[in-house]
Amino acid sequence: MQNTPQTTANKSFAIDPFRLLRKVYDTVEQVTGPAIEKLITTDRFARLNGKVMEAILRTQRVTRENVTSTLHLMNFPAREDIVRLGELVLQLEEKIDKLGDRIEALEQRNGKLTGG
Length: 116
Known about the structure:
There is one protein chain. This protein has 3 helices and no strands. The protein has helices spanning 17-40, 43-73, 79-114. The longest helix has 36 residues, at 79-114. The model has no long low-confidence stretch (mean pLDDT 89). By secondary structure, the chain is mainly alpha-helical.
């Protein structure tokens, strides 16, 4: 084995893509940052942003209603149906607990009367 000194031809001169990307990001942010900040603090931007949010909420509502209708047409329960069923189950559990308590109280009373 021969020990040969490393030459520049053997070295890798790879560019770090993350460092380059960070440099580009910082440059773009410095140039556009003040203009964007000035833009987003205007009343016009706030009104436009409000309209966009209203459109998004309207779209979500219509989509939810359409999905519910489609599920019902296919005879599947929708989210609201499952929530209502869960509430009914909880009410039934509460009634069963109350009945259990009443039965227990009656048994204790009956045991006292019979001398048990």
